[in-house]
Design goal:
Blueprint (H helix, E strand, L loop, with lengths): L6 E5 L9 H13 L4 E7 L4 E5 L2 E6 L3 H11 L3 E4 L4 H8 L5 E4 L2 H6 L5 H9 L3 E4 L2 H8 L7 E2 L20 E5 L8 H11 L7 E5 L5 H10 L6 E5 L6 H6 L3 E4 L15 H8 L4 E4 L4 H4 L6 E4 L4 H13 L1 H17 L3 H12 L2
Parallel strand pairs: 1-2, 1-5, 2-4, 5-6, 6-7, 7-8, 9-10, 9-12, 10-11, 12-13, 13-14
Antiparallel strand pairs: 3-4
Helix pairs in contact: 1-14, 2-3, 3-5, 7-12, 10-13
Length: about 350
């Protein structure tokens, strides 16, 4: 006799096909749990609609908290997850019954400078489980007297991101991410000044869009390296594997922007690069310290030190054997541990209680 699958409802403002760390984290884990749960994603949206993605029911409704509460009470799911810490989602879940929360970093930090901070933090404390994506994010939460019950690291898909058949022959540096100050792309552009004399064919490719783009383009001109920098804009997901495969080194010297309450909670792109067999140069900041194994899958540098970044890049360009070894270690780490199958199994363990 077939027993019905337990139902899981996930509340989120951000979900596939939108692009971003939260969207990827939720979608990749949920689609792997669809065989065990009847999953519905409830997404407040300006345009109500219903959809089905990889056996996940996606329902977009008008975003008032009361409508979310009504939908939750009517559906009576066995498990409820708030996919990222947002006041409307937390309030709706808390009014409807037991729930779990996934906190990613900048989602809960943004609330700390707003009028609803006490209520927001109280709602998080009511969660049955507070899940987070790294020790760095856990540290930030504990500083607010919010205590995670579980860290579930992100992953990536080693079947989608794969190494090239032949290592890159051109000195191409690559960054992938939203163009905001905490990504440290300005540090990477500044480092090119020390590199282009020795490597005249060096190219720095930057995939992504964001509010910092005009400033970064101005910096490239000011440093005289604009001919070595390519802003690729938004790159479709299906084109990313080839973009990684043609690069020699992945660079993203992320940093914490304390005044803006912004830090890198983890950095899934570091794992995508590792899955693609690339060595990584990253800022020693936030969750990047956990996404990159220093000296093994990449090199961690002081996040605002262009000289340290150029030194790390030069070291890797001059030692193709070390590049290959770091890329191989990164690939192995993704295949054995840092993948979405492992992350989905860990969330399933939390949901069983």
């Amino acid at each position: 006799m077939n027993h019905p699958k337990p139902s899981l409802m996930v509340l989120t403002l951000d979900f596939y096909p939108q692009i971003g760390g939260v969207q990827t984290y939720l979608f990749e884990i949920l689609r792997r749990l669809a065989g065990c749960y009847e999953i519905t994603v409830l997404q407040p949206h300006s345009a109500p609609a219903k959809d089905k993605l990889h056996s996940i029911n996606v329902i977009r409704i008008k975003g008032r908290a009361l409508e979310l509460v009504v939908r939750l009470k009517r559906s009576r799911p066995d498990r409820v997850i708030v996919g990222h810490a947002h006041p409307r989602l937390l309030a709706s879940a808390a009014l409807s019954g037991p729930f779990s929360v996934i906190a990613h970093g900048n989602d809960f930090l943004a609330a700390q400078s707003r009028w609803h901070r006490p209520v927001f933090n109280s709602l998080i404390r009511r969660a049955n489980h507070l899940i987070t994506n790294s020790r760095a994010t856990e540290f930030q939460l504990r500083g607010l007297d919010l205590h995670p019950s579980r860290i579930i690291y992100p992953g990536t898909d080693p079947a989608f991101f794969t190494p090239p058949n032949e290592p890159a022959s051109q000195p191409i540096l690559l960054s992938v991410g939203r163009l905001v100050p905490r990504k440290g792309i300005d540090t990477a552009i500044a480092a090119l000044q020390d590199l282009v004399g020795q490597y005249p064919t060096l190219e720095y490719q930057i995939a992504g869009t964001g509010p910092d783009q005009d400033r970064l383009q101005g910096l490239a001109r000011a440093f005289g390296v604009e001919n070595h920098v390519r802003f690729l804009g938004r790159v479709p997901q299906e084109a990313l594997p080839d973009l990684y495969r043609q690069a020699a080194i992945f660079v993203l010297p992320v940093r914490e922007e304390k005044s803006a309450r912004s830090f890198e909670g983890f950095g899934i792109v570091f794992l995508e690069a590792s899955a693609s067999g690339l060595p990584v140069v990253a800022g020693r900041s936030g969750g990047a310290v956990e996404a990159v194994q220093d000296g093994k899958t990449g090199i961690l540098i002081p996040p605002e030190d262009p000289g340290a970044l150029s030194q790390a890049v030069r070291r890797l360009l001059e030692n193709p054997g070390e590049r290959k070894t770091m890329g191989a270690h990164g690939r192995e780490w993704v295949e054995t541990t840092m993948n979405w199958d492992r992350a989905a199994e860990e969330l399933a363990e939390v949901l069983r209680f």
